Amino acid sequence: MIRETIGLAVIIIGIAFDFFGVLGLVRLPDVYNRLQAATKCVTFGSAGILFGTFIIQGFSSFGFKALIGVVFIFLTSPVAAHAISRAAHRARIPLAKETVVDEYEKDKELKQSTA
Amino acid sequence: MSLAVKSKIVVFILAILVWLALTGLGLQEIITGVIIALLVSLTAGHFLITTHKQKHTLHRWLYAVFYFFKFLWEMVKANIHVAYIVAHPMLPIKPGIVKIKTKLTKDAAITVLTNSITLTPGTLTVDVNEDKKEIYVHWIDVKATGMEECTKEIGARFEPTLTEVFE
Description:
The complex is a heterodimer. Chain A is an all-alpha fold. Chain A has helices at 2-27, 31-57, 61-90, 103-114.
């Protein structure tokens, strides 16, 4: 009973953060800022939902699958964000107009002019 | 025994254990698991262990556990930070890509550092320059543009602990 309450609480927290992540996807201006929302809130939210499932189920085969899911989300989501942002920058997708500095672009131009 | 073979055997055992934990013990599952684990360990097994065993194992494990909790705390902060920005009606962002320097040398250490940077407040790793040990970071709320200040703001949170764990 207590375990179910805690598990449900964790799941609800996860859903709340997922909601904020999706809201960020809609509201933020460019692909890089959107990735910020997507990697942080959605990782934490989805991991929270899976972890809540694990708390309710315990160390059954079902709960163990949820736990492995948490580990995989934590490992893969930053790598995916890195790949997407790097690809976006290489494809010259512009940064939002609020952007104050872009060291990456500077260094890339330097490399091309010396090569 | 060479390092690559050792690494492949470790990967094989790990893959089989995870597979059996996911599916359960049955003849079909075991046969499929052995075939898949063999394929995985033969094709990608040599990536796991690349250095010989190092000393001070307990010391490193303690720091790894400490790092885990520190990381969890930073991650909770990151999520509240992003939730605040997103829910704020004015959308208070000041994004930019900055450059930070790292002293870590091992591939695994840099990977953990960059993954941690991505999952912690306001920062997202875009690219790594392996020759110069520089990391390009997208920062949603730029507080400094110079490399020294940025390194202090972003990298210094994790680097001392990671040095203890990996180096």
